[in-house]
Task: structure prediction
Amino acid sequence: MNEALPLDGTRILDLTRLLPGGYATMLFASLGAEVVKVEEPERGDYMRWFPPLVDDYGAMFHAINGGKKSIKLNLKTGTGREVFLTLAAKADVVIEGNRPGVTDKLGIGYKDVAEVNPGIVYCSVSGFGQDGPYVDKVGHDINYMGYAGALGQSENPCIPGVQAADLAGAMMCVISVLGALLGRERTGTGQYIDVSMHHVVVSWLALEISKCLGHAPAPSAATNLFTGAYPCYSVYETADGAHLSVGALEIKFWRTLCQSVGREDLIDEQFASGQRAAEVKASLNDLFKTKTRDEWLDLLGDKECCVGPVYELPEVLIDPHVIARNLIGREPKSGVNRVKFPAVFSRAKTSHIEPAPKFGEHTDEILAGIGYTEEQIEMLRAEGVI
Result:
């Protein structure tokens, strides 16, 4: 029998939409928290309606909203504000992803909530944070990555294949909230957390920034080990138009690779730089184009040389390691396939999660739980509050 999940008994009010907040609160739900998704009555989280649709809702919505509850609530009304503060009085955490200042204007900001619940942990996730010159700038993942210098670390700045700033902000939200909850165990009081996606990406560049702070030449794609500056750490095309990832940083791995492909003459060229790096990489690219990706993997797959495939997503779904680790599975109740929580606990099972909620599915249940009668709930509905 599995033990209770780590966050069983923790209630989180989720005022976010789209990816950053949605991913963060999905992680909390996977850890056992009761996540109440507070949605405005007209559209709610509009990721619900992004195609392709599965069971009337967007597949992407299902992906990051499993296990949550949904309540419709118009926070622009005085009554809606009162309902929210009543909910917040019995919550542990509030997470919001609005523009800075919006929740304060609505009367549901940290100070408002802390008056009714001094133990609340309140986290705002935004692009550039709650103050500073960029506080009012609009933006998306690509903009935060650009301002932080991350896009500039790639040769011919390219858009990453994953929304790194959004997801970095989400995970920093989770880390910070968990830290604040632990702190509350000692002090009995909550606190406010300001998470900036831009700030998190800047922190991810700590190694590169340290070089600048140490008065070394600023790193660039041409000199950065991890952006393909050297032959031993790069991506190479194969005969079938696919690609291999080569990460042979240690000399023993690079030596094994050179010996395995019949290019012992390149053993001393592991960290060739400048024009010589381009020549070695071109030579290796010509070599790798003589076989298909899978032919190279058959030759190199069992050798310790840090060579792997660059998979397309459909290939990831059938990868034997992904299957063996049970990373992707079908929800028993909804029948929707989704990516599961990526960490494995020895005593608590986090892999199973309830389906994503229908729009406003738990409105009556949640209101009844904080003392509203059926008549009062119907009145709120008639007034357009829920």
DSSP finds 16 helices and 13 strands in the chain. The mean pLDDT is 92.
